[in-house]
Amino acid sequence: MDWSAADDYPDIRASVARLCAEFPGEYWRQLDREAAYPTAFVAALTKAGFLAALIPEAYGGAGLPLAAAAAILEEIQRAGCNGAACHAQMYIMGALLRHGSDRQKSRWLPQIATGALRLQAFGVTEPSSGTDTTSLRTTAVRDGDHYVVNGQKIWTSRAEHSDLMLLLARTTPREQVAERTDGLSVFLLDMRAVLGRGLSIRPIRTMMNHATTEVFFDQVRVPAENLVGEEGQGFRSILSGMNAERILIAAECVGDAKWFLAKAVAYAKERVVFGRPIGQNQGVQFPIARAYAQMRAAEQVVKQATARFDAGQACGAEANMAKLLAADAAWAAGEACLQTHGGFGFAEEFDVERKFRETRLYQVAPISTNLILSHLAEHVLGLPRSY
Ligand SMILES: Cc1cc2nc3c(=O)[nH]c(=O)nc-3n(C[C@H](O)[C@H](O)[C@H](O)COP(=O)(O)OP(=O)(O)OC[C@H]3O[C@@H](n4cnc5c(N)ncnc54)[C@H](O)[C@@H]3O)c2cc1C
After folding, report:
1. In this structure, which residue's CA is closest to atom 35 in ligand 1?
2. Domain housing 161
3. Cβ contacts of 245 within 8 Å, gap of 6 or more
4. Atom 50, ligand 1: which residue's CA is nearest?
5. Residue 46 belongs to a domain with what CATH number?
6. Burial profile 324-339: b = 16 or more Cβ within 10 angstroms, e = fewer
């Protein structure tokens, strides 16, 4: 079955698929068992230049649009690999690119483009604030030519496998700002300089292999020159990057859905019970067919969101809808795939249960389904604000 006829970036997709073929299910199963980081896979993607897709050519990247990055991540997931290990290297630098000074960009971006420096930790979520980002409590207080950071982040993924962190911290107390989105600032934290000297990282074990952590800041000194954008305007600086993140993760979900569907279809044709392939039964066919339709619809919304982002148009609603629909499509496809496999769906060697655990995350992170629905209700439909 050829689902690729109308795919954009066919050459990029083919070369991602070739690279991913070197990292089959057994590679991921082994890592999953050991909760280990896919170092070889990430190194191969970095070497091939895929993680620098969005960095402009002037800074050593490929200068490609978001649509190309979406194609790369979709193909990674479609091949059964897991882009979550490194997808943030693609989009976190967006805040630096859009809001950093020329000096910051020429200092950091070329090294990020080559992979000499990894910027794939995004320190936003905190234990007490959760989704309510503007009530975060980590503070950064100016002290001469430094800021001093105190507080805690949670779910800071890949912090142990990153040199730099994009950190959101409060620089003006909440009660002293007019808007609740004011008073937060973004910093590029060089973790190499402060690890073990005020900065500590504690891994969190999760239901899937995700390299996520808690990060503690105790009098961590950050040079003032590492402030990205204007002090107090950090929330706005990270918002545009969040749309990119949602769109790219939606593309990954489309890739997951395609992997599950291909796997379900193949097994439904091959598995014979009661003297016929199980896929001959409509009870087996219909959930797969429905998930296929959901995937195709989500794919269109991802493309729409990507096109708006690349054209510099407002895309908050589309990015959120893409994430919602694609995460649902991936989950529907995962459910259909697992059910089609019967008992074998639970066996590690089929990879279905691993992918099933991995794709479940996208109902919750980087933004949970409820928060997307409330964004649409309030900002698109004009319903009363709920929180
Ligand atoms: C594996 C993993 C990796 C992550 N990686 C990162 C990372 O790299 N960097 C980072 O900063 N964060 C990261 N996150 C955090 C992630 O973005 C948050 O978990 C997510 O945004 C939800 O926040 P929360 O867990 O605090 O849930 P809460 O905010 O506590 O919400 C709990 C539940 O209540 C619902 N809820 C809350 N308020 C409302 C409301 N007003 N109306 C309706 N429903 C509501 C939510 O939808 C959710 O289902 C990660 C999380 C996980 C699990």
Report:
1. 370
2. 119-232
3. 88, 91, 366
4. 155
5. 1.10.540.10
6. bbbbbbbbbbbbbbbe
Distance 285 CA to ligand 1 centre (A): 34
Same domain as 97, residue 164: no
**Tens digit of pLDDT for each residue in 243-279?**
999 999 999 999 999 999 999 999 999 999 999 999 9
In a domain, 299, yes or no: yes
Burial of 313 (0-12, 13-18, 19+ CB in 10 A): exposed
Torsion angles phi and psi, residue 153, rounded to 5 = -115, 160
Positions marked catalytic = 245
- Residue whose CA is at the smallest distance from ligand 1 atom 36: 370
Mean pLDDT for the stretch of residues 228-256: 95
Expressed in angstroms and rounded, the spacing between residue 266 Cα and the centre of ligand 1 is 35
Mean pLDDT of the chain: 97
Tokens 């990119």 sit on residue: 244
Residue 260 in tokens = 């599950």
Among the three residues 197, 232, 267, which one is the final residue of a domain in this structure?
232
User: Would residue 373 count as lying in a domain?
Assistant: yes
Q: Tell me which DSSP letter residue 227 carries.
A: E
CA-nearest residue, atom 48 of ligand 1: 368
Residues 64-84 have a mean pLDDT of 98
Ligand 1 contacts (CB < 6 A) are 122-125, 130-131, 155-157, 206, 210, 212, 361, 364-368, 370-371, 374, 386-387
User: Given the CA of residue 158, which atom of ligand 1 is nearest to it?
Assistant: 8
Same domain, 60 and 134: no
Q: What is the pTM of this model?
A: 0.97
Report d(CA 261, CA 292) in Å as an integer: 7
